[in-house]
Design goal:
One of its GO terms (cellular component) is cytoplasm. The protein contains twelve helices and twelve strands. It is of the alpha+beta class.
Amino acid sequence: MAEGNGGGDPGSQVDGERTEDYQKLINYGLNEKVAAKLDEIYKQGKLRHEDLDERALDALKEFPVEGAVTVLKQFLESNLEHVSNKSAYLCGVMKTYRQRKQYNTDSMTVNPGKGPDEDNLKAILERSGYTLDVTTGQRKYGGPPPNWEGPPPGPGCEVFCGKIPKELYEDELIPLFEKCGEIWDLRLMMDPMTGQNRGYAFITFTTRAAANEAVSKLDNYNVRENAALKVNISIPNLRLFVGNIPKSKSKEEIMEEFSKRTAGLVEVIIYSSPDDKKKNRGFCFLEYESHKAASLAKRRLSSGRFKVWGCEIIVDWADPQEEPDEDTMSKDACAPSHAAWWAGRGSRGRPQ
């Protein structure tokens, strides 16, 4: 781990109250309050100094002091039992905090609910020998199965499962999909802004036959009363959601700007403001020629290295739902979840 230069008064620590890693944090350049909070996490055993890479430490060093302390407090309160990369998880918490500050959602609290039944989940993991890896964006079970030999499953082996109730987790999804065949992996997508699942998951089977069986048996399956799942063979996502764009920009201007910054852009989708048809609603969807092109564009646009029209944009995968028409889009509750969330925010924190 790289060493920093200066930052803090070594004499400010009190003997017996700090771990031996506290001084390393000070030497790296972290503020004393931030180093003290991180040291508290070390003492509670939720994180080791060796778990943090330079990316996480640099991000903490650049963060406003009070923001960094708040982020570390949330990290301390998080359930990290199934988090394998704690450094990346901490970076995810920092990214979410920045988004909340940027879009005036400070009052939004993470409320994941009761979570999965840990006893059932433990029994599944012990029985299957699979692992569960949790990040701020997804909960991934498996991949590959134990003792797997050969290449990963090919096209047609993955299914998309939508309309998942927010309170439902992998401890209920795994037994359901296991009935259709051997699971390669299951990825329940999470919303870091709320801590709840995003209503959909991807399940990869080891064979196409198992994937087709899942569609046959579980499409429109009532997993809860009045809660039917939507299951179909997965189609590669080609579309990105981009928020915080100036509402004055036209479809042509957006196409020109993002074509200069990313490769493979083939279509821009915008929706008119209900108050002014000449303006967009502060967000758009970008469609690319391939999933690889979309993935590379997402990585580039999310890097934080540049602004678009002077704006710090928010970029994410577009939720894999049917594209609504303009009439549907005018009803926020019926719009795709990214767009509905954005439209429901009004004009707070968004450029005109």
